[in-house]
Amino acid sequence: MNKFKEIRPIVLGLAVKDNKLLVSEGFDNVKKQTFYRCLGGGIEFLEKSTDALKREFKEEINIDIVIKDFLGISENIFTYQGKSAHELVFYYNINILAENYKEEYIVTDDNGQSKAVWIDINEFKNGNKILYPQEVFKYI
Fold first, then answer.
1. Cβ distance 49 to 11 under 8 Å?
2. Confidence of residue 109 (pLDDT cuts 50, 70, 90)
3. DSSP letters of 74-113?
4. What pLDDT, on the 0 to 100 scale, is given for residue 70?
5. How does DSSP classify residue 41?
6. Are 117 and 129 a contacting pair, CB within 8 Å?
7. Domain residue extents for the chain
8. 116, 109 in Cβ contact below 8 A?
9. What percent of the chain is modeled with pLDDT above 90?
10. With contact defined as beta carbons under 8 Å apart, do 50 and 65 qualify?
11. Fold annotation for 7-132
12. Which tens digit of pLDDT belongs to each residue from 82-99?
């Protein structure tokens, strides 16, 4: 699937602890902008969204998660690195078990390596840091 030419179904896990949200850090070279996004990724053909979410966390930060509640779906049309993209986003409330909790994780995905960190939700709500997609604010 070409994520810049087709509608892409993705799933994101919202992990909240002490009013902090676990997010991965990204950078758009065209916009010269640092942004954050909850962890997750693409849903493969014939894969349930919950299975995709568990797989993505295992692949990206090598931990198992507990999926609690389905929160909703949103449509996300955006530009990244100068290219237009279109996603259908499934959101789930998740827990990270105590034995898997870290202040920072190394994320390994298609773009190489980045980091995931816990950031106070108020940093996003007051505009100090950018959180995508915008619709995620309905669920945090």
1. yes
2. confident
3. EEEEEEETTEEEEEEEEEEEEEE-GGG--SEEEEEETTEE
4. 98
5. E
6. no
7. 7-132
8. no
9. 92
10. no
11. Nucleoside Triphosphate Pyrophosphohydrolase (3.90.79)
12. 999 999 999 999 999 999
Q: Are 16 and 10 in contact (CB under 8 A)?
A: no
* Burial of residue 138, with CB atoms counted within 10 A of its CB: 0-12 exposed, 13-18 middle, 19 or more buried: exposed
φ, ψ dihedrals at 11, nearest 5°? -135, 135
- d(CA 59, CA 67) in angstroms, rounded, equals 16
* pLDDT at site 110: 76
In whole angstroms, give the CA distance from residue 78 to residue 23: 19
Q: Supply 1's token pair.
A: 């699937």
Instruction: Note the pLDDT tens digit of each residue in 27-70.
Output: 999 999 999 999 999 999 999 999 999 999 999 999 999 999 99
Alpha helices, DSSP H, located in 7-64: 49-61
